[in-house]
Amino acid sequence: MLRMRRSPHDLSSISRWWQKEASCIMTLRHIFHTLSEPEQVQHPSTTQGPVSPQLHSRIRQFATGPPCAPDVNRIGANMSASRGINKVGRRCYSYKPVDNPGMLVRDFIHDSLYHPVEGYFTSRPVSVGETPQPLEFVSMLGQRHYTSTLDSLYKERESSWFTPVELFRPWYGRALGRYILSQHKLEQTKGSTAPLVVYEVGGGSGTCALDILDFFAAKAPDVYASMQYVTVEISEALAAKQESRVGQVESHRERYAVWGGHDAAVAEAWGAVDDSPCYVVMLEVLDNLPHDRICRGKDGRWMQTRVRRNDRTATGLEEVLEPLTDPLIQRCLAAVHPTEAPSGTEVYAAAAAGPVGPIESDTWQHPVETAGKVVQSMVDRWLLGGRATSVEFLPTNAMALFEVLHRARPNHRIVAADFDHLPDVAVAGRNAPLVASKRAGSTHDHSTYLVPRGEADIFFPTDFAALQRIYAASSCSPIGAEGGGGDSATPPATSQVMSTQAFMERYAEVSATRTRDGYNPLLDDFTNTRFLLS
Question: Is 228 strand, coil or helix?
Answer without folding.
Answer: strand
